[in-house]
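Each letter names a residue; structure tokens follow underneath. Both lines appear below:
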Amino acid sequence: SRLLEEAAREFNARGIAGASFARIARRMGLTRAALYYYVRDRDELAEQCYRHTCEVMAADLAAASRTQGSGLECIVDFLRRALDTDRAPSAVLSELDYFHGRARQDMIAAHAANVMALRTLLRAGMSDGSIRLCDDLIAAQVLIGTLAWVPLSMDWVEGTDPAYRRRTVDALTDLFVNGEVADRSWRFEPRVGISQFFAAPAGAFDRQAAQAAKIEALLMQASQLFNRRGIDGVSLDDVADQVGATKGVLYHYFRNKTDLVVRCYRRAFTLYERFTDAADAEPSAIDRAFTGTYLNIEAHVSGLSPLIQLVGVDALPAAARREMTKRARQLQQRFEAYGRQAHRDGQFRDIDFGTVAQLGAGAFEWLPKWLVPMPAGHIAREILSLFAYGLKA
């Protein structure tokens, strides 16, 4: 319905806690009071939006599974349905922990069923020989994460091309079917380790360094919580419990929760920029592209945990929002430049580098939402292989 479409836009832009009934009503040409005819409160509306997201994906997967063709053709059908530009974006399921009780359990179960249905399509493709052998759990989560990132990325990346949403259909389908590399015998060998990006221990008598180390530890652990549970699913009490401190300690370093979130984002973008600086030192454009992606993946599986670009960018203070979206654009442009140079060098196929550079973040932005115990190197290899070679056998 129109209400769910407008509510999804509002929740994606501002998060559940920052969403405004009045703003949703204005966009629909209604009074705020009129919305109460349809829903009891904001939480009920958010629950309906999240359920709708799960139902739409379930319907897309069911329709794709009925495609008369190979497993790969079923995956392509699913992607094209999910990316249909005539369809309004759904609410992104990044704040499931905002909900409680049966509602939360039902939504988690519905999302898990969708992941399993997508894994089933991937396995069917591997069985019929249309999809190369891969880890279907990782592949399914990368597909879902990238699809979730599509509507968010338009708000997070400053100056996004108005035609971007239309271009995502062909760009993502091509990427996930055929990959980026021109020579499928090419293999990536990382030369940079994530360990060098962790803060060095402070000296026993260096008070300033000790305080900086304490703030870094607070930001890292707060980011881990926000990444897993969503910003609106985490309170300052939760953060204090996570770090084993009182809330008063947090207020000693941060003015309020918004200040904590902004500083977590600043830390994240500083890390992203350091990863890209490290990639710049690699000898070839293809190595630069994959080193940057590799370090972003390793950051999450290693526990460094930069804050992912979640729903709610419009809820940030205006100056912080401008800063973050500008930095996101600069990073996207650097990765786009790697791709274009790799194509000129004959290392990459001719693809839509601007769109792929903007969308690629979805693979690692979604990682904290599903990360399960498995070797970190395996996760990185599988995600990088999906970008390099696609799914096609």
User: Anything to note?
Assistant: The chain has a mean pLDDT of 94. DSSP finds 18 helices and no strands in the chain. The first helix runs from residue 2 to 18.
